[in-house]
Design a protein that fits this description.
Length: 292
């Protein structure tokens, strides 16, 4: 078993993910830029195996067989990844759970290889609830041998961990995930707004059509809260815009057309302009309910 691990970035996702590793008996050293959060994590997990906080990514990574990170965007991955590599020994493994570009994954893979370290891009789906319940879906890019080492550790907080291909393949798969969600949430918003304006009982409509071909995870998990105009349930619009920006850039490079995704990205820009950057992604319905 990979005993000694480090976890860098204790945000909404990283905090509970690192917690599952401590509960499973790993020795976990954490780093967080805002040190108070790392201290809080240690206080909360003291007594669940050997846990500690380190002042820098390199200090956290030193001596760990496996280093995991979950930060914000491409630049954060470059900064925290480079700092972690400075502390890592040849033969160790770095896994990045951030949703980032395939380009940064390939860059990190090369930078890690130059130091004899393996790198996996391993973005996640399942949101805050998935991280807390240990039921994330993880899509991985990198080498098969590194994947075989990391998989049992990632399984501590996942219901599915799948190697999709070489460096960057995990991030490309996550892009497909976000493309599939974007248009669907807009369609669900349009249906809910239409049902309300048509004078129907919208909850009853969702009950009925949710048992037919229109059913979706978004309808099941967000439909009722959208009807109630509540948007505090997970993945923020600011993060979605980052992700759609990554998708649109990749589509330009590979020649895919993403007309609906590009349009929905602009709708999310309008949600941000209304101060909704931290609302969850189902808030698209607000633009229809209250057009300005
Ligand atoms: N939230 C979700 O539902 C969800 C679902 C799937 C994927 N994701 C992806 O997972 C990643 C993390 O999301 P999150 O919701 O956990 O974000 P978050 O709550 O904002 O946490 C981000 C973490 O990264 C750290 N960080 C960011 N930039 C840094 C830098 N340059 N140097 C050092 N530390 C840095 C932050 O440190 P501080 O505490 O000091 O700010 C914090 O610990 C994102 O890429 C997101 O798109 C999120």
């Amino acid at each position: 078993m990979t005993k000694k691990v480090a976890f860098l970035g204790l945000g909404v996702m990283g905090f509970p993910m690192a917690g599952h590793l401590a509960k499973a008996g790993h020795d976990v050293t954490v780093f967080n830029r805002t040190a108070a959060k790392a201290a809080q994590w240690v206080a909360q997990h003291d007594g669940q195996g050997k846990v500690a906080a380190a002042p820098t990514p390199a200090d956290a990574a030193r001596g760990a067989d496996l280093v995991l990170m979950c930060v914000g965007n491409d630049d954060d991955v470059r900064a925290v990844g480079a700092a972690a590599l400075a502390g890592m020994a040849s033969g160790a493994l770095l896994v990045d759970h951030t949703t980032a570009s395939a380009e940064v994954a390939r860059e990190m893979h090369a930078a890690a290889a130059a130091r004899g370290v393996a790198f996996l891009d391993a973005p996640v789906s399942g949101g805050q609830a998935g991280a807390e319940n240990g039921k994330l879906t993880i899509m991985v890019g990198g080498d098969a041998a590194a994947f075989a080492t990391a998989e049992p550790v990632l399984a501590r907080y996942a219901k599915a961990v799948t190697l999709m291909g070489g460096p960057g393949a995990g991030q490309l798969t996550k892009m497909v995930n976000q493309i599939c969600i974007a248009g669907l949430v807009q369609a669900l918003s349009e249906g809910i707004n239409f049902a309300g304006r048509a004078g129907l009982d919208v909850d009853r409509v969702l009950d009925v059509i949710g048992k037919g071909a229109a059913q979706s995870w978004q309808m099941e998990n967000r439909g009722r809260t959208m009807v109630a105009d509540k948007f505090d349930f997970g993945f923020a619009v600011d993060w979605m815009r980052k992700d759609l920006g990554i998708c649109l850039a990749e589509a330009r490079a590979n020649g895919s057309a993403l007309p609906v995704t590009a349009l929905v990205d602009q709708f999310y820009a309008r949600v941000q302009a209304r101060g909704g950057g931290r609302w969850d992604t189902s808030s698209l319905v607000r633009l229809l309910r209250d057009p300005r």
